[in-house]
Specification:
heterodimer; A: 112 residues; alpha/beta; 3 strands; B: 349 residues; three-stranded parallel beta sheet; elongated
Chain lengths: 112, 349
């Protein structure tokens, strides 16, 4: 079973911000596309370390993690394969809320 | 042939010389006259403030005068001699307009030294003197100046103000002070993403669709001001297609529309607004014992007083061409005197 750990601060940026690539160079969209999605494709389990970062901004977190659902992953699958490591509990709960909300939105879109 | 008298010959000679001289000097005189007419001296208001009705009218008239003169092809000298009170809101708007004017009308904007020593220190501290080719002749020592820090950008690039986020996040008197950086990032990201979201004739050219930020940490409190020259919150809401479904909102004053945007009442109205930056600032402010959050956009303003959880709305006569966020929060006791709060001016961007 393959595992990988991604440290946002040391491997991406210690000052990530913004939702889309057009917002800035360290956006949530770019982090998801260039780091999270390849890691999920190539590994059974991915641990993301949020410590060491000087703040995120909700649009970064929503696009990076909620965006995984929009990219085709099921919330339940992510619960099993994605681990969030952070010293700030707020981030943990926020990220899972974004994933669940994105899952609900996708479900409603399918029903509609 | 008729013989000319001596008197007549002298007159003709003098006349021809005058005509020749006039022909030679005419172009120079024309240029001189045009230059005199083309240089307009505009006095910077004594008090530059946007959150007071009368002072805002004076400030906005000044901005309009400068723009009109530049549009007419004139060169403009900004006369700072009488400027005495440069409030953060007015100064931030002035800095944003320096960027815009100097980009649109290169080489046609000049400035004079202020008579007031504090204003001169401020202009030097913010790099304004250098921008206008004026010598930096003073030392920035004044308490009201040296604690100010200025940042600007056209991207959500949190590294620009990283020093601010790191230095204050452990000092703010808040149960989750680390989230201050998140709020700041989100506010800037929302400005980048939404403040210039549709075209109007008033918007600056694309390279100058930026955010401008001031911060100050002094006297046990942190103050942050963010300004954009964008489409404004009320206009942004009125532009939404869903807005037309809520005809009752059409008569809403600007201040009420700002309140609507901040308090996330969009679930009821389906008026998706410009992200979560402002609601998150409010949520953060809800956990402060003191401090204030104020959003001014177009004609309206919405103010939250953390001490008594009181909200206030205001309407101004003149519309602000953009959105101004003023955010004040207290430091924990005994944390405001640490030496790292006094940045050196090299860090100012």
């Amino acid at each position: 079973m393959s595992q990988i750990m991604i440290s946002i601060a040391s491997e991406y940026s210690d000052t990530p911000a913004g939702r889309y690539r057009t917002d800035g160079p360290f956006s949530g969209e770019r982090f998801r596309d260039e780091m999270l999605l390849p890691a999920l494709r190539e590994n059974d389990s991915v641990e993301v370390n949020l410590d060491g970062v000087v703040g995120f901004g909700s649009s970064f977190l929503e696009e990076a993690f909620g965006g995984l659902v929009r990219a085709g992953y099921l919330a339940a699958d992510l619960k099993r394969r994605l681990k969030i490591r952070t010293s700030l509990a707020t981030y943990q709960s926020r990220i899972w809320r974004y994933i669940e909300d994105a899952g609900r939105s996708a479900h409603q879109a399918v029903i509609a | 042939m008729k013989r000319l008298t001596h008197k007549k010959r002298v007159w003709l000679e003098l006349h021809s010389r005058r005509s020749a001289l006039a022909l030679r000097t005419k172009p120079q005189r024309r240029v001189r006259i045009r230059k005199w007419h083309d240089n307009k001296r505009i006095t910077v208001p004594h008090t530059l403030k946007l959150t007071d009705n009368d002072l805002r009218s004076v400030a906005l008239a000044f901005f309009r005068d400068v723009r009109s003169a530049l549009d007419l092809g004139q060169t403009v000298t900004l006369d700072f001699a009488k400027a005495e009170f440069m409030h953060p809101c007015g100064t931030l708007m002035l800095l944003s307009h320096f960027d815009i004017w100097q980009h649109l009308y290169p080489g046609r904007l000049f400035a004079t030294y202020p008579e007031n020593e504090v204003v001169e220190q401020l202009m030097q501290h913010l790099g304004v003197l250098r921008r206008f080719g004026l010598e930096e002749r003073t030392t920035v020592t004044h308490e009201r100046v040296r604690f100010w820090h200025f940042y600007s950008g056209d991207e959500a690039l949190a590294g620009t103000y990283k020093d601010l986020s790191i230095s204050v996040r452990q000092s703010i008197d808040h149960p989750e002070a680390a989230l201050f950086a998140d709020c700041l990032n989100e506010a800037v990201a929302n400005t980048v993403h939404h403040a210039y979201s549709f075209e109007t004739s008033r918007l600056p050219p694309p390279p100058l669709r930026k955010w401008w930020m001031f911060s100050q940490y002094k006297d046990h409190k942190l103050f942050v001001a963010i300004f954009d020259c964008g489409v404004t919150i009320p206009d942004s809401l009125r532009e939404k297609p869903a807005f037309r479904d809520y005809t009752s909102l059409a008569t809403f004053k600007d201040s009420r529309l700002i309140r609507l945007a901040i308090k996330s009442e969009r679930t009821r109205t389906k008026l998706g607004y410009r992200g979560k930056g402002l609601p998150e600032m409010l949520e953060f402010s809800n956990n402060l014992d003191r401090g204030q959050l104020s959003i001014t956009s177009r004609r309206g303003a919405w103010i939250y007083h953390a001490a008594n959880r009181r909200e206030e709305t205001r309407e101004f006569m003149e519309p602000l061409p953009g959105t101004l966020v003023l955010w004040e929060m207290p430091f924990r006791e005994g944390r405001s005197d640490e030496p790292n709060y006094d940045f050196d001016s090299k860090r100012i961007q």
